[in-house]
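dumping the sequnces here before i forget
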Amino acid sequence: MLKKIFIIVSKDLKIDFSQGHLFFSVALYLVSSIFVVYLSFGPVGIKDLSTWVSLFWVLILFGSITSISNSFLHESKKRDYYYYFLLSSTELIFSKLLYNFLYLIILCFIAFGFYSLLIGSFIESYLFFYFILVVGSLSISNCLTLVSAISYQVRNNSTIMSVLSFPIILPILLILIKITKISALNFSWNLVQDDIYLLILLNVITLSLSKILFSYLWRN
Amino acid sequence: MKWIKIICVFLLGYVTIAGFLLDVPALPILNEAIRVLFFHVPMWFTMIFLLFMSAINSYYYISKGRINYDIKSNEYANVGVFFGMLGIISGMLWAKFTWGTYWTNDPKLNGSALGLLIYFSYFILRGSIKDELKKAKISSVYNIFAFAMLIPLIFILPRMTDSLHPGNGGNPGFNVYDMNSQLRIVFYPSVIGFILLGIWITNMRVRIKFLNK
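..and the predicted 3d for all of it:
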């Protein structure tokens, strides 16, 4: 099972690298929206922690919705049947989850690098912030992969995807914003403990529901 | 079903009369506005109950595949969202008279508004698929997923931050000192009565849908 998952993930990565524009279009989308933020805040820049954190995560949210909505899109209709004979639904959803997770980590780090380059960084404890980036991309990908499968079935992608995912992703996004604000000040484990536990709980829920519900969604 | 209707009419009749006529404790800012409690809070209880029933029916649909469950789940969601709207409107009126504004940046308010947004997008999803079976399956999947994300939004997140609502930063369900016992004798019948009313309305709508088919 693990082997099959890795094969699918590496196939997707190969497609991405050979076509190139798929990854770079999303990266360019993020970079240009960061540039828009930079220009619109003018010569002064962002002087306020909460604005910095919320804008950062909103940018990540938009970038991730654009990238994850593509995750099922470059499967052609005929390949659906091929997968249907070859893989179980669990293998397929986990490979997509892993692929989206890797994708989002790279996007998050690119976004953070560019964001801190242009706008400056308020972060004090970098190690914890990188941990938040990894956990954040994990939870966002867990939450949005099933939604992207749903919007792939509807085949009305761009609007349906964003309409369905915004209200659902919000609890995760709120927790991420909250703990990022803490990481910018004096970090201590006691301050973030509850939120981290809640985030783990949400991840368990989204992961298990994705596994269970996708099998019904896939069975056409 | 017959007993549900009789109990519902009896309880809601009692609540309407007692809620307006019985003595309530006079508190500085609240004054008589506390009576909204009998109608505002049960709306949320009813909404959560109906949305839970909707998620259960969605689960039955995807596991058993009978279209009746999907019709039921859709109607439960419809009526649940209707009660949610009533809850928001009554809450806004209450907030105007006690907090001085219709809308504040309170985690519970935002959570409930988001919960309604989730179900509006559920209706949009239903509207955008033509094929009946496909619509039923996809919207059931989304319904279950959405309900699972609604729970932290309404029950967990507000309790981790400060709120204007009573009973946050703890579990309000087990707090004995939150509510006067004078209020309880109207409040609990009101909760049960409105939940029964929700079931009754849904049942009627489902039967109309069945007849139309």
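The CA atoms of residues 78 and 202 of chain B lie 8 Å apart.
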